Input
Amino acid sequence: MAMEDEDKNTAVVATNVRAGIKKGGDVGDNGACIDRQPDTVVHQAGLNPTAGRGSRSGPGAHAATGIRVLKRNMKRNGSRRCMTRKTRFGSRERDWLKGDTQRGCVCLYGGTVDPQPPAPGPQASSTPQTDLQLVLCSTSTTVEELCAQRDGQGLYVQLHGDLTRRLDPSERPLQMVYDYLASLGYSDPVRVQQEAANSDLSCMIRFYSERPVNADQQERTLLKGVFSVRKGKTQLHKWAERQVLLCGTCLIVASVKDSLTGKMHILPLVGGKVEEVRRRQHCLMFSSAGSQAQTYFVNFDTLADYQRWHRQALKVVSQTVSLVDLSCYSLETVPEYLFYSQDITHLNLRHNFMSLQGPGGLLNLPRFSQLKSLNLSHNRLGVFPECVCEILTLTELNLSCNSLHTIPVQIGNLQSLQTLSLDGNHLSSLPEELGGLFQLNSLGLSFNNFSHIPAVLERLSAVDKLAMAGNRVETLELCTLIRMSHLKNIDIRLNGLRWVKSENLEAVSQVTQLDIRDNCLDSLDLSSVCNLETLHCQRNQLGTLTLSGFTLRMLHTGSNRLTTVNIYPVPNQLTHMDLSQNLLEYLPDWVCDCRKIEMLDVTHNLLSELPSRLLNSLSLRKLLTGNNRLQRVPDLLDHVPLEALDLQHNKLVELPEGLFYKALNLKYLNVSANALESIPSSSQSEESLSTLQELYLTGNNLNENCGALLVGHQNLRILHIAYNQLLSFPASKLSKLELLEELNLSGNKLKTIPSTVSSCKRLHTLIAHSNHITVFPEILNLPEIKLVDLSCNELTEIQLPDSLPSTLQELDLTGNSSLILEHKTLNLFSHITTLKFDQKSTTTAGDSLNASTPWNHGFSEMSGQRNKLCVSVLAVDRFGDNVEACYGIFDGDRNEEVPRLLQCTMGDVLCEELQHCSVDMVYMCNTFLTSHRKLGMAGQKLGASALLCYIHRETSDPGGYFSLTVANVGTCQAVLCRDGRPVPLSKVYSLENCTEEMERVKLSKAIITEDNKVSGVTCCSRLLGCSYLSPWVLPKPWVHTVPLCPQDEFLVLGNRALFERVSYQEAVCTVQAVQDPRAAAKKLCSLAQSYGCKDNIGALVVSLHIGEDSCTCEPPVSTTEPRGPPPAPVPVSVTPGPSEPVNISSSGGIVTEFSSETSASEVGSEAGSTASDEHPSSGLASRPERRCSLHPATTLCGIMVPGSAGAGTHPGLFQRQPSSATFSSNQSDNGLDSDDEAPLEGVISNGSKLEVEVDIHCCAFQLRSGAPESPKDLDLEKQGSDYLNGKMRRQNSVVVSATNGCLLAVCGREIADLKKSPSTCSLFGKKLSNGSVVVPEDSHNLIEVALEAPKKKSGYFTAPAQQDPEDQLIVPPSLEQEVREQLRSHGPLLSGPSAPSTPTTLKDPVWDHPHPPAFASNLVPGPGPTPILQQEVYDTAL
Output
């Protein structure tokens, strides 16, 4: 049938056999259409090139009208569940797909769950992968039509790698995919069609042609087999072969061997025993409980069977109740043999797809005669199963989240029911018969559609809690509660409640707990609720609050607009009160009269003074008064039991003199961000009784004299005294603080840290950045030291002991311009997980290029008191065409995998999306959605907040000013400083901060817990990852574009932890006071820690220099290269010359960070594909470039040519992120034969092989266009004149690329061999093994190929094998000139006409075949003693 005649309900179904099909995508006589299968691709995929070319017979071989057949071979990558396409559609298939956006592709998987990749070897290469089929169909194609063509029994869908559901015959698979993509945020029909065909989507939505088989689930549901069985402990019974089952709580033994008919012997196991029989191999003894216990001996055939049955039986016998847990098994019916377990009392069927019909359907549940508890929540029932009302023994029934609209009147039959959960449904009323359940004491009605409190509750006298959170109750009538005298606990949060009315003076005496958080109340009078004990009313709009204080114990009123709180009488039972984030200018008098108050939180108010009686209270233990306007603290009159005192962010100039010796129980004191010039003495005598453990003094005016006053606090564990006026710290005083664990001395004027710091044997954290320290402190002999931060100082040398403590995990030495690390020092540091230091570079004439950069950045990340860092930063000063920048921050909360993956791939994705569209809303939204998909399996259960900033010129006005486009999900935030004032650029997507998001989540019937988390997991309504929480948590970002102007000074990016502690205004003022962006970022993090943050903190500061005289470069005449996606971090073996030091930059271009533990390319083996599956369309015009006298260089991809500029002076040249580089010193060889020779700067070696992993994300491959600096380079400059036009040259089949002063060469004769190698074949395809997304241009391919290098095979990216050290030639610095001369004597390397890059043609971005990679032979010109390498000399790149 012709392609154009198949618009209606067309399905192209893949089968496992085909015949009469022409290779290359032709349509045969039988109407079958297949895509072309290149033999080379098949070989690389490890597939049989002849597979599938047999005769057309067997299932699915019949011809069907309007149906065409497509066969696809797939190759598995490192992810267990994601597939990588190795071929693309044929031309006719593409034409058919392009004809209508309602056509598309659906992937059908086989029934094997988590199949392992084929083992390497000859056998694997001959075994085709047949568990994946492609189906071309339309959105109107139903499951019934697909199954009719395939002779299948049905289709199954799996969302987010979780449960698998059988599709109804009328459901339409492709339409389901389109609807799913639309719910994520895709709006363009063409893009939806393209995304639906992407194989990476299978990690989010996947279709199966048969029910997936999971051995582990089968084992936990039912064990069955024929084994030798003997009954009883005596020898009277003989061994016999019998059918044996372990199902539910019983062991079932059949009376005959071959079937389960006839008499069945049931052995209850709950409370019984299962023991190993030592006299027989693989034999177990099963015994029931009770005085008349029965015993069966079962002899298993194999050890595997024995262990499986033993493990499952132990779980059953250890139970105290007869519980069967079948939750999350994708069940449609319960196993039929389960009904033999008549002792079952608790049955959990949560998260399944239970049906009414069938042998094990819900209609059969009344067969359980002793069932007391039944959980059917999350089963998509749609209607209340009336058969449940026949189980009269039920005491607990859970039907939450089943889309129920009504409750049948038969519910009144369950007279024994005590607990009924109906949360997360669509109920708006309850039947009157429910009022007859007099034993019902718990009724869950949260997150339904009730507009009022159901009247039937008046008759349910045993119910003491009204759980109606997340409904639509706008008015609460207190008189209604009076009639329900049995209700004590009222939960009506998240209802949109506007009024609480009391029409009469009658007291509501029974209510003791009331929760009305997150509503719309502007005033509240609960004086008639006379026995109220606990009130939660946070996040309303309350201006006034009136309460009865007779029995009040806990009061939570944070985040309102309160100016006063009226409570009468004085609440003498009050112990805990939270009045934070209100508008209180003074504390009510009754607060001081509370006799039992223990905790008072009045932070973020307008208080100017504290009552003296409050501080002298004999009950108060914790007082939080930060972020107010206090100018003094009243004196303590007597000893008080105060244990924690927070006075940060006030206007204090002094503290009470007797604070420390009158508050002897004080363990925590925070007085940061005040104006203190001294601190009080710890005691009145020489002997101190202080128990202070944590002291925060950051951001005051303290000098070195305060050191002597700290001696008395000998129990001090944490001391933060950063950003004061300390010139020194008394050495004798520091030695007395022997219990000190964390010391922060940053931002002072210290020139040295006393050597007595070595007396602090428990010290594990020393932070002393931003000082004037010249001598490295003696801290490397401390036994517990973990983190040392001495960045932004004036260190010149480091005196090291013979060995370093094994506990040292992080050492930051960046920002010490005079520090020179010797070779032995770097070797000694090689074991440190994270080592950061500045890499020295040679200044060249290209420095003028850096001066024209209108921005530079610095960042800081601190793990706080967490064991791992879950924050990652992306910073690229030179993005794309060198006049753009990209910055991002990612916060995984408690996982580090997703932030690292986003750090490695999101810049690549943005580069690719910019090729498709120039509309900011579109390309930013698609960047986030594509990154969400590329997270693969890692994104199913894990997620992260993400923020991305893109600085660019508008395509409509390339000569205009810059614009800043910001997109974010989650709680990462960005703020712009404009004219000294903060301008927020992001939107906080948390349920507490975003009302519309709260409403959206409520409408989708999510369960929001009391701490405002979706399903108790996250407080964010938008995240990248966490796809199992869809549709409640979405990846669609907030996008905002603002034009930049000369008044814009800098940009601050931070995660939630930073901006929870540091306000926008304080962040702006902090950065304004510090010139260096890196020092400013570090200060922000240090301040947040001193303000009480214990979590991971990340800050990125971008200094902007957008002046009136911005460059006015003109666009080039023509451009053939699209924007190059940034390559991913890859390790390379390099041989630096004397003038080309190894420079591995950490986001600023001048920082090196070595991580000997984990690199960014090895962050997980279960993540999905991060390389792109589609090429960017080169048909779209590239963004025009403008060039002026400040920007003479041409950029190609991202790596700087030696001699064009010093790498260390380019802030965005090599983008290295924290903990994303691996330095292997035990495989290094720098060419030095002894320690007497001069070591290479920044290179660590122990004499074996040098391996440095560098990140070349979004680098700028810059070609110098100036005049040659030496006559030796004159010829090279002439021959390389085509570089000025941004073109590459092809000469002598030699591929040469440069990376920061190091030449990497690939011999042309090696390319064919590399293509044949399984470890390197992926280099020559579109998707590289390191996950980078590259356009098929010569310049990009040669860089990727030259830089591809070994990585862990078990890591996130597939990696080629490690080459032997003897295969590499290392040229010592002293011989480089001689080698250069010898190479020149062989004749010039460049000869013949140049071969410019071929412009890519206009093609479809997804359906087309990938462009064949071309490997140009290029020689990079540049001054300096860079050796020119022939193809016989170097093979170091691979």
Observations:
- The longest strand covers residues 943-953.
- The chain is about 15% helix and 20% strand.
